[in-house]
Structures are given as structure tokens and as C-alpha cells.
Amino acid sequence: MMQRSLLLALISLVFAGAATAQAPQQQSQPDWPCRQVRVPELAVASVWTGPPLDDAMKHWREDQTIGDLVVRLSQRRTPIDEAERLIAQFAKSSADRRKQRLTTLFAGVYERMNDERRDVVNGLDRFGRRLKAMAEKAREETQTLRDLQDQKPPDPEAIKKASEALQWRLRLFEEQRRMVGYVCESPALIEQRFGALARAIQQAME
After folding, report:
1. pTM of the entire predicted model
2. What is 132-181 written as a DSSP string?
3. 31 belongs to a structural domain
4. Cystine design at 47: which of 69, 145, 151, 198 (Cβ 3.0–4.6 Å)?
5. 38 found inside a domain
């Protein structure tokens, strides 16, 4: 059975780590588990200096070629160098309508990747809520173990079972917490790819 002092030290370490991971979160978003600021929408104005997108946003799905290309460009399994090649080919095939069609293409890429980022951010909120629920359950089990250890006379079998349950809970919590740094990179990766595609599309307009 884990000694009480060691168990309490482990609990403190795990919960301190969770607090550190969530320290900069916004007060209005208490479930957000990441160090990064919660930004669910892509900032199109920071990467796009081309024509207005209002009309293109309404009609990009009507062009099957553009729709298919939007899917390929948005998928992370398509390497950026291949995406740039596809954009250049599309620009060349668009002839005198190049600027208009590239604007429509960008509108599709923006909408699709913005939806993806929003879904990822919402998923991270759910992940944060799950971490909080796991931490609260561990706190409850910690208190149960303390109460059992303080009983006179103590019940060794009950203490053993409670300790084993808590150790399992803490291991599970720590495994999930270690994932935070990795999963929190997803919105930034989407934004980086979006920026690279925006630059490639605008360069193809020149």
C-alpha cells in the first residue's frame, strides 16, 4: 500500500500540474485546458489582402472543381508543397478568370478550415471539462482514503482498496493531462496551414 505521505505528494503534484496547464485561461472560459488563448475563429483579415469575399463565400460550393480542390487543400495529409502545386495548376487553368476563381477558392478554404478550427476548439472545451471532472473525482477519492486512514481502529482492507482505486484514478488523470500540450497545438497547426494556403493563393493571383 502506498504510504500516506507519498500518496499526498503525488496528489499535490498532479493537481499542481493541472492548475499550471490551465493558469492563463480566460475567466469566461473555465473549461479551456490550454495555455494558448482560446480563439475559435480564424482571423482572415490577417492573411488575406485580396478581393472582398462576401460573394465568393456564398457561391464557392457551386463549382465542383473548386469544391474538390478545397477539400484537398484543407486536408493536413496533403503536403504544403503539393498544395502549392495544385493551386498553381488551378490558377493556370483559370485563364482570364484567374483572380475571381482564386478568390472563390480561398473563400472555400477559409470556410472549411474555419469550421475545422471551431470543431477542434469545441473538442478542447470538452476535453477540459473531462479533466476537471476526473480531478474532482480524484479529490473525492482522496478524502475517502483520508477518512478511512483516520478511523479508529483502521480497516486495512478498506484502506487498501481505496488506495488502489485512487492510484488508478491518478494514473488515468496524469495520462490525460500529459496529452494537453499535444492536443492544444491543433488550433495553431490549422492556423499555420491556413496562412500558408492564403499566401500561395494570393501569389498565384500575381
Report:
1. 0.77
2. HHHHHHHHHHHHHHHHHHHSSS--HHHHHHHHHHHHHHHHHHHHHHHTHH
3. no
4. 198
5. no
